Amino acid sequence: MSRFLSSATNRIDSKGRVSVPAAFRSVLAQRNVQELYCFQDFVFPAISVGGLDLLERFERQIAAADPFSPDANEMSLLIHGGGVFMKLDAEGRLMVTDFIRDFTGILDEVTFVGRADHFQLWQPQAFQAAQLQARGERRLAGRRSE
Question: Is the pTM here over 0.85, yes or no?
Fold first, then answer.
């Protein structure tokens, strides 16, 4: 199954690189992703990472809108202005650049979080807090539907 699932935390080495989990590298290989499209998530303090298909999905949404509309302009600002292309090195490591650090607060560890068709890079404590909050909100939603 070629989905990004689960989460894992890895240390950043002295040269600023972090190993992408083997399961995530396997999905990238299955999808033949050579170049990673990375963008600043719209909701969370995380960097979302996927292949060109992820960028193309957003560009189709932008193209379907009136090019002069605030929605199309905002989406382009986020997707193009808040995105970069990156590559893994030969050992499957990603350089943790200022683009990543400044937006996420990542210092010495990265939590990789599967999101089905892409994955995200999180500062570990921020991910734990967001997951706890989401779990709590799901519990509350379940109680309201009883």
Answer: yes
